[in-house]
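Field log, afternoon session.

UNIT: design team B
ACTIVITY: writing a sequence onto a fixed backbone
BACKBONE:
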């Protein structure tokens, strides 16, 4: 009996050892060492499955934390640079008396920098709101919304040619949020304007496809290289082209667009050729459509 008792105790001890090992490892994992992983069992049992699942969770958490750190670092850099320029301008002004014209010029430069900071902060707040929660779905008249955006932006840029070609001749609604959908389309059209010569036309084309409704936003601008296309949705990414240095922007617009598209199950694809232009396609799938 004693032998049987000792044998059973030994087997029980051995069977719970993987749990003890996992518990000990889990207790030492903190936000500072998220790269650590739980030990796997030699046997393909339930304990091993649990360990693997937790390791996958840790991997996702680690990637999320790293993205957050990178985002914070990029945001700090984007805010620090214009503030440093603004500080430098003011320091120049107080060193010695200057002509009034120079004061006016430096103050105007300062206002431009403040406007840029405000734009960055607005986009950062939008991103923060998107990460917190999504907007409530509602019925959105897609054709009316696109038409209204084209009219509004055309009034904002009277010297630009923005055309809408609607190939859908019936009322069409999507399950989304009107404000969020407007942000997606407006950001894409504003980008097309920003990166295209004044004399070039920007086209929006609405048409029915077998896989849903397509909205094409077509420009004849500077285009995007294949290398930059792979990073286009990263926050603060603006590409390596020398033309971009002369164009104002924080590199947050497409990050916001992508997050909203993911929330509302809208597929976005970008086709571009350097020096020739860009076509962005928004696909509204049947699952979110109704007439």
């Amino acid at each position: 009996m004693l032998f049987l008792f000792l044998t059973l105790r030994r087997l029980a001890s051995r069977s719970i050892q993987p749990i003890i090992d996992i518990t000990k490892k889990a207790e030492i994992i903190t936000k500072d060492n998220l790269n650590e992983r739980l030990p796997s069992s030699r046997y393909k049992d339930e304990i091993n499955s649990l360990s693997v699942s937790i390791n996958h969770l840790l991997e996702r958490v680690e990637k999320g934390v790293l993205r957050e750190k990178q985002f914070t670092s990029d945001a700090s850099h984007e805010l620090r640079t214009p503030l440093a320029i603004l500080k430098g301008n003011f320091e120049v002004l107080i060193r010695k008396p200057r002509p009034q014209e120079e004061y006016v010029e430096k103050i105007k430069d300062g206002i431009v920098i403040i406007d840029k900071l405000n734009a960055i902060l607005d986009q950062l707040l939008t991103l923060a709101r998107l990460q917190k929660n999504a907007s409530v779905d509602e019925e959105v008249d897609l054709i009316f919304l696109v038409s209204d955006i084209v009219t509004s932006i055309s009034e904002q840029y009277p010297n630009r040619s923005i055309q809408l070609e609607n190939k859908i001749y019936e009322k069409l609604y999507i399950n989304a949020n009107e404000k969020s959908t407007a942000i997606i389309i407006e950001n894409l059209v504003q980008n097309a304007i920003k990166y295209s010569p004044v004399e070039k036309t920007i086209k929006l084309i609405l048409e029915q496809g077998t896989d849903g409704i397509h909205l094409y936003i077509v420009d004849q601008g500077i285009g995007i290289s294949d290398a930059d296309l792979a990073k286009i949705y990263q926050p603060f990414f603006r590409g390596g082209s020398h033309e971009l240095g002369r164009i104002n922007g924080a590199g947050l617009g497409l990050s916001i667009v992508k997050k909203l598209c993911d929330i509302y199950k809208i597929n976005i694809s970008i086709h571009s050729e350097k020096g020739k232009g860009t076509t962005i396609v928004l696909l509204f799938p049947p699952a979110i459509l109704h007439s």
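LOG NOTE: Residues 1-133 form a domain with the Helix Hairpins fold (CATH 1.10.287).
NEXT ACTIVITY: expression trials, pending approval
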